[in-house]
Amino acid sequence: MRILADANVPAEYVAPLRGDGHEVTFTRGVDALGPDASDERIVDCAESEGWALLSTDVKDFGNREAAVPVFVAPQHMCGGEVRTAVGRIEALPFDPARTEPLWSSSV
User: Fold this and answer.
1) Which of 26, 47, 48, 76 stands the most exposed, by the fewest C-beta atoms within 10 Å?
2) Distance separating alpha carbons of residues 32 and 107, to the nearest angstrom
């Protein structure tokens, strides 16, 4: 899965996902976004590039509507828990982009 990680996502969340073969890119590494991109620009970029979105920003992404999967992983989670949650979500028999944002801590 191609995942766009918001600037606030800890590297601890990203390393296990990359280890599982996911292509994870931080918003700060995308020239069109940078570290201070608005939430709207981040969603627009994820949608245009076909990336799922990963954020720890519960307030701004917890109810965000997008045409791509939005994973909200609260900051109290560890990298292994995020990895497990993404794996479970991938195994679900539906398109996560067609649901409400998914809270990684509840999967």
Assistant:
1) 76
2) 32
